[in-house]
Design goal:
The complex is a heterotrimer of chains A (248), B (348) and C (467). Chain A has eight helices and ten strands. Chain A has 248 residues and is α/β, with parallel strands linked by helices. The N and C termini of chain A lie far apart (39 Å). Chain B contains four helices and 20 strands. The chains are: A alpha/beta (248), B mainly beta (348), C alpha/beta (467). Strand 19 of chain B pairs antiparallel with strand 23 of chain C.
Amino acid sequence: MNKLLEIKDLYANAGEKEILKGLNLNINKGEIHVIMGPNGAGKSTLANVIFNNPVYTKKSGVVEFEGENINDLTTDKIAKKGVFMSFQSPEEIPGISGMNFLKTAKGKIIDKPVKIFEFKKQVMEYVEELNMNSKLVDRNLNVGFSGGEKKKNEILQMLVLEPKLAILDETDSGLDVDAIKAVSKGINLYKTEENAILIITHNMKLLENLKIDYVHVLVDGKIVKTGNMDLVHEIEKNGFKEFKRKED
Amino acid sequence: MEKLVVNETPVRTSRNFLINNIKLEGVEIPNKLRTFDSIQYFSENTKLEKLDKKVCLVYGNGKILEDNCNENSNSSIKLNINKKDDIKLKYNFDDNNLELINRLEINANSDANIVIEYKSFTDQKCFHNGIIKINVAPNVKVKIAVVNLLNNVSLNFDSFENELSENADLEYTIIDIGAKESISNYYSNILGKEAENNLETVYLATDNQIKDINYIAELRGEKTKINIDVQGALKNHSKKNFKGTIDFKKGCKKAVGDENEYCMLLSDDSRSIALPMLLCTEDDVEGNHSTASGKIAKDSLFYIMSRGIEYKEAIKLIVKARFNKIIDKIGYDDLKEEIFKEIDRRLD
Amino acid sequence: MSEKTKVDDINRNIYDIKNKDDYDFKIQNGINADIVTEISKMKNEPEWMLKIRLDALDMYNKLELPTWGPDLSELNMDEIATYVRPKSKLNSSWDDVPDDIKETFDKLGIPEAEKKSLSGVGAQYDSEVVYHSIKEELIKQGVIYTDMDTAVREYPEIVKEHFMKCVPISDHKFVALHAAVWSGGSFVYVPKGVKVDIPLQSYFRLNSPESGQFEHTLIIVDEGASLHFIEGCSAPKYNKVNLHAGCVELYVKDNAYLRYSTIENWSKNMMNLNTKKALVGKNAQIDWVTGSFGSKVSMLYPMSILNGEGAKTEYTGITFAGKSQNLDTGFKVIHNAPNTSSVVNSKSISKDGGSCTYRALVRIGEKASNSKCSVSCESLMLDGISRSDTIPVNDIRNDDVEFSHEAKIGKISDKEIFYLMSRGLSEEDAKAMIVRGFAYPISKELPVEYAVEMNNLINLELEGSIG
């Protein structure tokens, strides 16, 4: 089966506020999808709702992963199924070293103890690939990291945890050119025919070095148009005005 | 002549820490006073009414002073604010009005901006013991400033108490500059859901002035907020006790409490004690407090003096800059000016 | 995620092993001049020590119970035996310690730790020290590490000069009680310039029910010397209240360094009313590392008095209160000299209806110009039936200071939990990891064995021991 994620007619709220209003999305193995949209359209909400963040509530609709309904799974169970999310603003967790955290998480995902020596070696290889400061993995998780370091650390976690589907929520926002390069390198390192990526962004820079299969425009809680990279260029030129008007 | 023990903290700590209360020796509490007739009142929509009933306090400055207010007051006022209003109430102490024992109850059913001022127009010793009780109705926003500009031989006791209903918003500003001893107690019962109380204080003590400040905020309603910001400066042999308590009561889910106290020490002989308490019996809350004391930063002083301003002026400038954020909230320019002038005079 | 995770109680198995209350001698319950005199006589003490004890008893009778802090009404001195002599004399080899007592210390891992990571060990069982040893090379350097009774006999001049001088008997009621009935404890003297690299440890075990432990620790680190001293305490649980009123007096002379670490895991019927104080000389430093987990009620506020110019102190403490515990802990520091500095880092965790109070005093005196103090204080509430209070007094009497104090209170952040869960950790694991991270700044200050013990104590093993 090639199908990874299937979202059918999803409605979701943040508190009382309706944010997703009938969203549909299919992602198969081997694909890279991009979701673009104006601020407040529901892009980050989508990522969080897939992951069952308790801040949001699904009102109706279905989220399936590999054909299984994951609507009511807890966040950790969803992660164990092979879904990953790179956070827009990763949490700082004092007192826990990055390496220990990676080891623990990896152990949970593969459901057996991690062989430390090999594991560390692999992590350090990725660290080098991403051009990260090698001391960061020994520091407390994300504590005192710069914006760029935090995002690279998210990509590092993605590489190490090897999910089937990676959702990158605004991973490129606020990054300088070099950091964006490192992130895009990480994405290419991760990508195979067996996995898929969903990139949420309103920045074009990150997409330049990637082979994008689908581009979706998300406006007011719904996907209003789907296309290929040409759509990105169109938006780059004209913004989202046109799509918004269609909605009115 | 009495020995008064006032301003007890809600929770006691070791006696050796010298902060559970303040003891005042030889205080003469006046009674049987003639009416305080030097009051100025300005308002568009609210009339001065006489307050007949007693005001019973949860905290206050102790039983003796509370009873004194209820039994011997020479000014008892009630304000029922039913239409949006700007209100000024000035108690002008003069040679014929040296003693004020007052009760003031404010029932805010409509938004209001209130200023209350106690000021000496005499060099003689003034005595003030007062209660201000404010009830803020649902969805009502009240801004109030209480300004103490009594002279330096006076004695001042303030008991402030508030009750906030749902979604009420109370912005309290206290400017505590005057009186030899100024003892103030503030209790806010933040009862209604999403009610919010902002309390900002400026104090300045010079010479032998004593400030004893005891603020207590109880968060009871869901999503309630309290923010206490106290900025002060001490000079010469002055002394300040600051006790600030934020008490998260059971049921105040998602409440937020912040408390910040900053004391500038302008002289080697002044003394600052602070007890910022957080009490908590609810888990889903956020409480923060911070206090700091110290000299004025050498860097700022140097910078200002390098522009040709002499040391004393530079200090004044920095102190006033620090206070400005709070004093600026008082809507009346003339009063602001008066306060700054008084600060200048005292720092000279 | 709305369901509350239960963080398990500390696993107390090893600590709860009760030996038979099989003493050599147990003094009658209560306290009076006869009892105090009898304790002194049995110890063959010199007259001056008996006089201190009797003066202290007078003071005890005069002083009132504290008017603040936890409720002490369950404590009835008439029901407490102040002196229980175990069936063992003082030994310098574990082989000579009676089997049942040795077994207890074996299970607590003391002889094992001695082999691996300590340069001297003292072990007290009820009112008397049953084992004391110190590495040969330290003796050669002139280091003294012995029990207090021996110190009174062999080093009377030093003891006389320092005993109850750092902590006066009038300090509070339980100090007076301590001075009247004290027994056991450790005496350490580190001569000028001697650096003791490997820690010394004293372990205090109270086995006998309805009794009190009143050990006295007196440590003198002479000029330029350094020492790390560790104390551990535990007791099995009984239904009636036990009392611990120890006293620790530390003299850190000019340019000396002392680190004093404590892992306190008294049983939950213990009233822990302990007093610890350090006098710190010129350019000297005392660091306190304290983990408070046990006892029913604790009132414990180690105190540093910075008397010498340039003296420093650091306090790093964690308090973990569970069901029916009221742990009132904190720190006191007095800055009495110029250029002194103090750093306070306190954490607390409350759960299952437990109550934590951080109570503190910072006093920067008139003479302490150019001094610094920074305080950070964090409290974690694991549920809505517990309690957490922060009561810090900051008394600043000098303008030439940098003083700052910060405190925070709250629960584990939902966002942090969600982040960790998105990486595959269950909610329980995520919470455990965050709590362990919260405690890390303290556990990292402990020697490895104790950090492990502490993590065991908090039961924060990541692999699902919480649930």
